[in-house]
Amino acid sequence: MPSIHDFATWEPVLRLLRTAHAESIAAPGGYVAGRIGQHGWSLPMPRRRPQPGRALQIEDTQDEFDAVERVRGALAHAGVDDISFAAEISPDGSAALHLLHPSPAVEPGIGNPHPGSLILVEDAVPEPWRRLPEPVPGAVPAPSVDLASLERTLRERIPDAIGATEAEIAAAEARLGVVLPDELKVLYRVTRARWEDWGDDYEAAEHVYDAVGCELFSLDALYIADAPSRPSRWEFAAMKAVGTPPDAAVQGLVGSPGWIVFGDNGGGDRIAVDLTPGPRGHVGQIIMLDHEQDVGGDLHADSLTDLVLNGLGDERRGPRGDQPPAVARVNIASLSSVEAAVHPELEVLSIGVWEGEPLSLVPVTGLPRLRTLTAYPGTLADPLEIAKLTGLEFLELGPEDWRVLLDAGAVPRSLSAASIEIHGTRHPLPIVALANELLALWDRPLITRTTLEGNLGPVA
Fold first, then answer.
1. pTM
2. Distance (Å, rounded) from C-alpha 364 to C-alpha 240?
3. What is the pLDDT of residues 262-300, one digit of tens each?
4. Fewest CB within 10 A of the end CB: N or C in the chain?
C-alpha cells in the first residue's frame, strides 16, 4: 500500500495538474492546490467534454480517477479522511509538495484547499443550536385526538400486523428518555413496523404506509430530533437566528427534546410528534422536518388521529430562522447601509459585495444580541471597530482584515469560532499560517504541514 508521505503516491496527480496548468505554474509564485478525501476530491482540472451524443463516462476521466484513487488508498491506509495540498513545480520538474494535515479544530473547506471554520472553543455550537423550547402554558392536545377511533381504523386497515409488546414500548421509552404520547403507543401496539415482520415484502410496507399516512419507522428506530440531530457547519449555522412568533403553531427551533420522529414522507423529510408546540399549536401535533432546512418544522396534522384519518394536510410553514430584523444583509442587492440594519433584536450582520465607500461598524456597537459578523474583503472602513463588538461568537473576515486584528492584538476573545473568507485564487500556505495564528490564541490544535520533495522529470 502506498504511503501518503511518499512523493511517488502523488506523482500521477501532480503530473496531471502540471499539464493542465503549465503556464500558470511556470510563472513567478506559481503553484497548484487541491483537496482529496475519502468521499470526493477537488482538483483544478479543466472541464472534460463528452463525445457528441453521449454523457461523460468514467473512462473519459480515467487518468484523473486512477491518480486520485492512488492517493485515496493511501489516505484510507493511514486512517485520514481528507487532506489538502499545494505544490510548486519548477520547469525542470523538481517539485515541493506541501501536505496540509487536518486539525480536529478546523472544519474542511468546501471545494477548495483552504481551511473551513476554526472551532476556537472545543465542542462549541452556534447559539441557535443551544436554544431550547420555550414553555407554552395551557398547550393541550387537539380536539381531534381519539384513541379508540385511531386504534380501530389502524386494525381495520392492517389486520394482520404484529404489534409491539408493553415491554418493547417501555424499552423504547427508556432508550429515548421520554414517555411516548398515548397516540404513538396506540400506533405501535397495532404495528411495530419491523421489516422482518413483513418478510422484506415491499407491498406489505406500502400497505402500512397507506394505513398510517407516511413511511413508518420501527419502534427501534424512533429518535429525538434535537439540535444535534440536525448538524450544520459553523459558517452556515452562525447565520441563523431562531425565534417563535406569537401566532406560530410550531416553535422556530433547530431541534427539540419534544420532537419524536416516527416516520418519513418518502422524500427524506421526517415526520414527528411535537410535544413542545408553539403558542398556537397543540401538544401531539404532527410536524414535518424538511431535510433541506435546519431550522423549524411545518405543521401537517393536529394529531396522529388526524394524520391517520385524513392524511397529511396542507402545510402550515413554521419559522425558518433567517428573517429580519434578527438577520440583516448589507450588500448591493439588500440593505443599503449598516444603519439600516440597526435593531435591538439584530443577531447576525452580513456585509457582502459592496460598491460604495467602506462601511463603519459604529452604528451596531452596543447592540445587545449581535453575535455574528461576516464582512466581504475590503468592505470595512476600520476593522479595529470590531473590537468594540463585545458579544461576537462568530467572525468571518478576509485575510487582510484578520491581519489588522492580529497585529493590533484586537481579535475578540468572545469568539467561539472564526472563518477566513477567501475570494479568488490564494496560495493555501499563507492562509493556513493565518489560521494557525488564530488557533494558537485559543491553544487549539494547529494545521500541520509536511513537505515532500521530488522530481517529475521534463514535460513530455
1. 0.91
2. 18
3. 999 989 999 999 999 999 999 999 999 999 999 999 999
4. C
Residue 421: CB partners within 8 Å, gap ≥ 6? 374, 375, 376, 377, 396, 397, 398
Q: Report which of 343, 342, 407, 353 is spatially closest to residue 438, judged by C-alpha positions.
A: 407
Cβ atoms 18, 456 nearer than 8 A? yes
CA–CA gap between residue 41 and residue 217 (Å, rounded): 34
Residues in the chain: 460
Longest dimension (CA), the chain: 83
How many distinct helices (H) and strands (E) make up the chain? Answer: 12, 17
What are the φ/ψ torsions at residue 332 (nearest 5 degrees)? -65, -15
In order of 16, 264, 404, the CA distances from 438 in angstroms are 34, 42, 12
CA 380 to chain CA centroid, Å, is: 28
- What the block records as the C-alpha cell of 315 is 402545510
Residues 6 or more apart in contact with residue 431 via CB below 8 angstroms: 114, 115, 399, 420, 422
- Reported as a single tens digit per residue, the pLDDT across 246-257 is 999 999 999 999
- Is the pLDDT at 258 greater than 80? The verdict is yes
Pick from 445, 236, 425, 434: which is nearest to 322 by CA?
236
Order of strands across the sheet that contains 417-420? 118-119, 417-420, 394-397, 372-375, 348-351, 327-330
Question: Which ranges in 177-246 belong to alpha helices (H)?
Answer: 182-190, 195-198, 202-212, 234-237
Q: Is the predicted pLDDT of residue 346 greater than 90, yes or no? A: yes
Amino acid at 234: W
More confident residue, 230 or 62: 230
Report the phi/psi class of residue 117: left, alpha or beta, with left for phi > 0 and alpha for psi in -120 to 50: beta
Question: What's the rounded Cα separation, in Å, for the pair 422 and 239?
Answer: 18
Nearest alpha carbon to residue 116 among 396, 409, 333: 396
